[in-house]
Write a structure and sequence with these properties.
The structure holds two protein chains of two kinds. Chain A is 75% helix and 1% strand. By secondary structure, chain A is mostly helical. Chain A has one domain. In chain A, helix 9 packs antiparallel against helix 11, helix 12 packs parallel to helix 18 and helix 13 packs antiparallel against helix 18. Chain B starts with 8 loop residues before the first helix and ends with a helix. In chain B, strands 1-2 form a two-stranded antiparallel sheet. In chain B, strand 1 and strand 2 form a beta hairpin. In chain B, helix 1 runs antiparallel to helix 4, helix 14 runs antiparallel to helix 15 and helix 15 packs antiparallel against helix 19. Chain B is mainly alpha-helical. Chain B is 74% helix and 3% strand. Chain B contains 25 helices and two strands. Classes of the chains: A mainly alpha, B mainly alpha. At the A-B interface, helix 7, helix 9, helix 10, helix 12 and helix 21 of A face strand 1, helix 23 and helix 25 of B.
């Protein structure tokens, strides 16, 4: 432990990040050597898939021997492994769902996959970070790759705008986080979460300054999870970014951001977080309201999904507010179910949108069921899950979150949250109605059949959604055990 | 604990069949579709046999736990299956009769569109029905319960182009919602009272509770369960969906709406017998409803001309008999009648299907007659079922019906006599149907032809079971216990019951064989009474006037034009207008300009900082 030389156990616990980084670098190196001249690079796609699969295997293997690594900088525990596997799984799904889009836009190249893998590596670090500096590094690795991904279509004005906004605002918010970290270090003399927890428990820290540093970190985290009042960037970024990237951004980085949010506020600030609950409470409610009510009036489906993703962040904020093991487990379950659903839904959007993402109006989905029944069916499954209809993952996700909130005595937040999800049903159902009852639109009539890779992505996401909706307990049991953070 | 028997294979095999036929069926030849459908059910039938022989005489129930399905606080619900003596009977009926009807359906559906869709649904039904009977807790039963309802809905509305089929499907589904609501409420009460939904735990705890002389929690649970049973098993006042359900293909009527699904209500009452035993008020209600249903449905059966409708009302009436048995605590007799009824009613429906098949879709008995010589095998097999349902000694129907009526006699004498008369009416209307169909002159236009072997084969097996099945299953059924009152000397009672049946047959012969035309004059003489019964007591019309139309009107004027247009649209539009009104500020916030976003974030951050200081800074 005192030796500065890392042991083999350290490397095993860091293996997912190593794999992702090595494969990502390899992808960049191989980029000039591959390609068939038609803009397709299936070799690189499969290399990325193999790298992600290997990283997932490494993450699961590392959990066989959980514990700290690199002098307590990382901590491989159930919680960390859960989120590592989740973000890697999201990445896998994204690769399948992005394939058609990239080929269509003649943009399939090593950079995309490499950036995706680097971003995921950052998120894995966030998931297992046990120390504020490492946490910050993970967040930055993830964010910087994400900024570039958002602007991946260099020629596209919307994509560029999206990336620039994301970058400027993201950096701004990260500043708050870093300032908070600095204050904490000044107050406690440490950046290790366990040490901070112990120091705070011992008392003697100025509560005003402590609240100041916690508030600064809250701002940083809330921005990353797009919680109100720091959600303003999300609609513009998700709308402007390429659809597969929006899918990834709203699932992977968000889940990882919630992971650090939960970890910091249940370990380091664990003993005092209850005091600040009213702020969480207000933020959760505001997030749900802003997301759902703004989504009601959107005609652009990407923008609608962006607001919907804000609303769902609000539900997870409810779980964070409850500040309990049950709440943490509920948030974990919810984020997992939401990741599948959202990547799948954006994949259908990117399919219907066609070249140049022209068709992103809700009206463009008219009659999809008649022409492309599979696309309409999986979209219906995703949207029913977002509404929270039983037999889908979304139902149990909401159920566990609101149960955690009730257990924590937050009756009003539960009532208001449930009312919110009733409002939300409207804008999801609207799309389903349009898909099934209207005459096919021009956009739908022009659609080519989806590739088998994309279909696989859809079906996998839909199957996971139903599986979690019918048999939630396997995942929930794991989450409940992993949610006990120390 | 005995070793695992992999009971899960029993329902999973038909589910695989349903998935294969549902996903690939359209691209497969009919041979392959039929093979998948039949083999999957055959597989589960054989697996049932294998499990039952391995489990021996089941002195203690055999249970299997697969995984925890839902965990919420102290409440833990697993996916658990179990086999006890009650399940054993149900498994044999469902897989055995199910297999025969699948074979029959291959012949019957040969010319129909949507061949693979049909078998996919039928296999799906088998999956849910087997889940229902194997489940070891109420929630899993409910999964099967809702699932068979879904399969039933899909199959009633199978003929997509016929409007009445779709309507009948919807009617079945909606009426069943009422029953299912009762079932869910019963589950809630069970969770509150016992903290579990597991059969073993609930019944063990219930067994320690005293008999409730006045209505208490057990009475409430029992009555709510019975509301569910009334929906699924078509009892008063929720029976109205079953006659309409005959819009589905005939094998469906035989399998779902006669032999298996509709007996689920009897099954759940028998399963929860511990609770019902301690709720005498609920038992009385079960008896009265059963008796009333038996009488009402039997009288309607007398007046109908559609051959399937006659048998549909007969099913409703026979289900009433089963509930009478349960009401008299003779649960095993009720289940016994489930078994024998499954055989003879399956024959009646499949035979009716064979007649309809032979006549190219004709269902009106006034256009039949004299078919005895034209389709002799169908006629011969139907005779078995006819004698069985009429309670002629030597056939299995007599065994179970005698037991039921004797048990009812032990409970109340007047109910016994009403039951006996109803049994006579039963014999009368089935004989009437037989005479109108097979005797006299042929009155139709189509050229009848005998059905293929795939249809007559299952008919013969079931016909023989209508005779002998009761004797074969008697001991198995009685092992369910508790001992019923049927033992001992009831010679005189049995004589009365048999006489009633024979009298019914004789009267029918007198009216429809010897003095044709007499029935017309009787109908005329009874005038308005006859018309009331012929119109099925106008219950549907009453429901329509009392419930459906008010709800429709209410939905239109209050929910749609009031709530939806005024309130919801108003709120939505109002929100929109409000949003536009304060848009000046908001637009600057969400206007796409990075500096304004940054301002927004700074303001938010200030808010959070103040918030943190206010709520927790000072302490």
């Amino acid at each position: 432990m005192n030796s500065l030389f890392p042991t083999s156990a350290d490397f095993i616990r860091f293996a997912p990040e190593i794999v992702l980084t090595v494969v990502g670098t390899l992808l960049m190196l191989l980029e000039p050597l591959t390609g068939d001249g038609k803009g397709e690079k299936p070799q690189l796609r499969w290399l990325a898939i193999a790298g992600l699969a290997l990283a997932m295997a490494a993450a699961i293997f590392a959990y066989g021997d959980p514990g700290p690594a690199f002098n307590g900088m990382l901590l491989v525990d159930g919680f960390g492994t859960f989120f590592s596997v989740l973000v890697i799984g999201t990445g896998l799904l994204t690769v399948f769902c992005a394939q058609d889009y990239l080929i269509r836009e003649k943009q399939e190249n090593g950079e995309f996959y490499a950036l995706l893998l680097f971003s995921i590596a950052g998120q894995c670090i966030m998931a297992t970070a046990n120390e504020l500096i490492i946490l910050f590094i993970g967040l930055e690795i993830s964010s910087i790759s994400s900024y570039i991904l958002a602007g991946f279509l260099r020629e596209d004005r919307r994509s560029n705008e999206s990336a620039l906004k994301y970058f400027l605002l993201g950096s701004f918010a990260t500043g708050f986080l870093l300032y908070g970290v600095a204050w904490i270090y000044g107050l406690t003399g440490s950046t290790n979460l366990a040490t901070i927890q112990a120091t705070l428990a011992a008392g003697g820290v100025n509560p005003r300054l402590l609240a100041l540093s916690a508030a600064l970190m809250f701002v940083g985290f809330a921005f990353k999870v797009s919680a109100a009042p720091f959600q303003v960037w999300a609609p513009d970024v998700y709308q402007g970014a390429p659809s597969p990237v929006s899918a990834f951004l709203s699932a992977g980085p968000k889940a990882a951001a919630f992971a650090i949010f939960l970890r910091v506020f249940t370990t380091a600030f664990g003993s005092m977080a209850d005091r600040w609950a009213p702020v969480f409470w207000g933020s959760a409610l505001l997030t749900m309201i802003v997301g759902n009510f703004a989504a009601l009036r959107q005609d652009n489906i990407k923008r609608m999904l962006a607001y919907s993703s804000i609303a769902h962040a609000g539900y997870v904020m409810v779980a964070v507010t409850s500040h309990s093991t049950v709440g943490t487990a509920a948030a974990m379950f919810y984020l997992a179910s939401y990741a599948f659903v959202n990547v799948g839904a954006f994949a259908v959007v990117s399919y219907v949108a066609a070249k140049g993402e022209k068709h992103v109006g809700i009206g463009d989905f008219a009659g999809l069921a008649a022409r492309q029944p599979l696309a309409a069916l999986v979209m219906t499954i995703f949207f029913t899950s977002l509404i929270g209809v039983p037999l889908t993952a979304g139902f149990f996700g909401k159920f566990y979150i609101f149960k955690a909130a009730l257990d924590a005595g937050m009756v009003w937040l539960t009532v208001l949250g449930l009312l919110n999800s009733a409002v939300a049903a409207y804008y999801y159902l609207r799309v389903i109605v349009v898909m099934y009852t209207h005459e096919p639109s021009v956009a739908v009539n022009e659609l080519e059949p989806a590739s088998s890779g994309l279909q696989f992505g859809w079906v996998a996401a839909a199957a996971a959604t139903l599986a979690l909706g019918i048999f939630p307990s396997a995942l929930l049991e794991f989450a409940s055990r992993a949610a006990i953070l120390r | 604990m005995t070793e695992s028997q992999s009971l899960w294979l029993i329902p999973i095999l038909p589910l695989i069949g349903a998935a294969l036929n549902g996903l690939l069926g359209r691209r497969l030849p009919k041979m392959a579709v039929s093979a998948i459908a039949i083999l999957s059910v055959l597989g589960s039938f054989l697996w049932v046999m294998k499990c039952l022989s391995a489990l021996g005489n089941l002195d203690t129930p055999h249970a299997e736990h697969y995984f925890t399905w839902i965990q919420s606080g102290a409440l833990e619900i697993g996916v658990d299956f179990m086999v006890d003596r009650l399940t054993r009977i149900m498994l044999l009926i469902v897989t055995g009769v199910g297999l025969l009807i699948h074979i029959y359906a291959v012949g019957y559906m040969d010319h129909e569109e949507g061949f693979s869709r049909f078998f996919s649904y039928l296999n799906l039904f088998m999956f849910f029905m087997l889940t229902l009977v194997l489940a070891k807790n109420f929630l899993l039963v409910f999964v099967g319960w809702e699932g068979v309802g879904l399969a039933s809905y899909l199959l009633i509305g199978f003929y997509l182009k016929e409007k009445f089929a779709g309507d009948a499907g919807k009617k079945a589904f909606i009426v069943n919602r009422i029953g299912d609501f009762g079932f869910s409420l019963a589950m809630f009460l069970i969770v509150i009272t016992f903290g579990s939904l597991d059969f073993t735990k609930v019944f063990e705890a219930a067994a320690k509770m005293p008999v409730e002389a006045h209505a208490g929690i057990l009475t409430a649970i029992a009555l709510l369960l019975f509301v569910g049973a009334c929906g699924k098993s078509a009892q008063m006042p929720l029976y109205v969906w079953l006659p309409d359900a005959m819009a589905g293909p005939t094998p469906v009527s035989a399998l779902i709406h006669a032999a298996t699904m509709v007996t689920a209500g009897v099954y759940i009452v028998a399963r929860a017998s511990v609770i019902f035993d301690r709720a005498p008020i609920a038992l009385d209600v079960v008896s009265y409803i059963g008796l009333l249903t038996a009488v009402v449905a039997a009288t309607i059966g007398v007046t109908q001309y559609d051959i399937k409708k006659v048998f549909a009302y007969s099913t409703v009436s026979q289900l009433g008999f089963m509930f009478m048995a349960c009401g008299a605590k003779a649960y095993s007799s009720g289940i016994f009648h489930v078994a024998t009824h499954a055989f003879f009613k399956a024959v009646l429906f499949l035979g009716a299907g064979s007649v309809i098949h032979a006549l190219h879709g004709e269902q009106d008995m006034r256009n039949m007659g004299g078919l005895r010589s034209k389709i002799p095998q169908t006629f011969a097999t139907l005779c078995f079922a006819w004698l069985a349902i009429s309670g002629v000694p030597g056939f299995s129907g007599a065994l179970s019906k005698d037991e039921i009526l004797i048990a009812v006699h032990g409970k109340s004498e007047w109910m016994f006599w009403v039951g006996v008369v109803t049994a006579g009416i039963t014999a009368f209307y089935v004989s009437r149907a037989m005479f109108m169909t097979f005797f006299g002159e042929y009155r139709g236009k189509a050229h009848p032809h005998e059905s293929p072997l795939s249809m007559t084969g299952p008919l013969w097996v079931l016909a023989l079971l209508s005779a002998a099945g009761g004797y074969l299953m008697r001991d198995l059924v009685h092992s369910i216990g508790p001992e019923t009152a049927s033992h001992g000397d009831h010679g005189s009672l049995e004589f009365i019951i048999v006489a009633a049946g024979l009298l019914g047959i004789g009267l029918a012969a007198f009216m429809y064989l010897m003095n044709r035309g007499l029935s017309q004059s009787v109908a005329k003489a009874l005038g308005p009474v006859y018309r009331l019964v012929y119109d099925k007591y106008r219950v549907d019309e009453f429901y329509d006037a009392a419930l459906v139309r008010p709800i429709q009107a209410g939905s239109e004027s209050v929910l749609w034009k009031g709530l939806d247009v005024l309130l919801i649209d108003g709120v939505v539009n109002g929100v929109g207008r409000t949003a536009s009104a304060i848009g000046g500020i908001l637009r600057r916030c969400q206007g796409g300009h990075v500096p304004s976003y940054a301002t927004w974030i700074v303001l938010g951050a200030a808010l959070v900082l103040i918030g943190f200081q206010l709520v927790g800074g000072g302490r």
